[in-house]
Amino acid sequence: MTGEGRATGASERALDALLELQDLDTAISQLEHRKAALPERQLLAGVAAALRGVEDRVSEVETSRAALVEHQEALESEIAAATARRELLEQRMYAARGTPARELQAMDEEIRHLRERQGALEDAELEVMVALEPLDSERAALQAESAALGTEAARLRSALAEAEAEIDAELAVQRVARTAAADAVPEDLRSRYDALRARLGGIGAARLVGNRCSGCHLELPSMEVDRIRHLAPGTVVTCEQCGRILVPTSSATAGSSAPRPSPPG
Ligand SMILES: [Zn+2]
User: Fold this and answer.
1) Could you read off the pLDDT of 209-222 as tens digits, one per residue?
2) d(Cα 210, Cα 186) in Å, to the nearest integer?
3) How far does residue 219's CA lie from ligand 1's centre (Å)?
4) Mind listing the pLDDT tens digit for each residue in 143-193?
5) What's the CA-to-centroid distance between 7 and ligand 1, angstroms?
6) How far is the CA of 262 from the centre of ligand 1 (A)?
7) Could you give the 3-state DSSP secondary structure of residue 252?
């Protein structure tokens, strides 16, 4: 499995450029991930959901209120009609000299009925008003809550835009650097790297740090490491375990933003 077919020539410079390209791609992926995972985004979604909940409840309350208000208006118009009829009868009675006693008695009876009816209607209206009270206070509370959520949403939107703009500015710088780094990598090596990167979670080129591949974090057999370290500089090697392009580095050049094995413990 130490096949020579996997080792092809490139320049040392090309491999350095490839590692730089990988570092930039890693940095770009991290920035994109950070942008997608900004906490403000999730908080904003939560506030939007809460706002929808409040709005749904407002519309329920409005529907209940509207039914009660309609009932109240119907009662008030019945009260007004009964009152008008009673007042008319009362005027007639006071002005009714010479009206037959029988007729006066009938009018008196109707007035009594109208008073009773008015009393019953007024009681019913009072009940409606009592039922309206909690709905009115709930509506006021919901309106206050909605306003507070709206303020919070606006604050989060502006914080999100600010954080995104910051990351975008950083991304723009890294993308310019990436273009320059990519230009320094020979095309065949770059297309191999791009294919590996697409297949292997964004990492196509790894460092050989000590005995370990920084791509899969596995140790290579000592003989394989020894073989790789004695190849002509610039030889393109593949990690046996993960298939990534493996670039030997001395510990002095291993420091970078590329994924590296975590220290033990
Ligand atoms: Zn590996």
Assistant:
1) 999 999 999 999 99
2) 27
3) 8
4) 999 999 999 999 999 999 999 999 999 999 999 999 999 999 999 999 999
5) 15
6) 15
7) helix
Residue 87: other Cβ atoms inside 10 A: 12
220 CA → ligand 1 middle, Å: 8
Going from the Cα of 165 to the center of ligand 1, the distance in angstroms, rounded, reads: 35
Distance 192 CA to ligand 1 centre (A): 15
Pairing status of strand 245-248 against strand 205-209: parallel
Ligand 1 centroid vs 218 CA: distance in angstroms?
6
pLDDT in tens, 212-258: 999 999 999 999 999 999 998 889 999 999 999 999 987 544 444 44
**What is the dihedral sign for C-alpha 198, 199, 205, 206?**
positive
Q: How far is the CA of 206 from the centre of ligand 1 (A)?
A: 7
- The pLDDT score that the predictor gives to residue 8 is 58
pLDDT value at 5 more than 60: no
Ligand 1 centroid, distance to 258 Cα (angstroms):
13
Cα(208) to centroid(ligand 1), Å: 8
Taking the centre of ligand 1 as the mean of its atom positions, its distance from the CA of residue 12, in whole angstroms, is 20
d(CA 17, CA 20): 5
CA distances from 135 to 50, 121, 127, 230 (A): 20, 22, 13, 83
CA distance 243 to 235: 15
Q: What angle do CA 220, 225, 231 make, to 5 degrees?
A: 145
Separation between Cα atoms, residue 146 and residue 55, nearest integer Å: 8
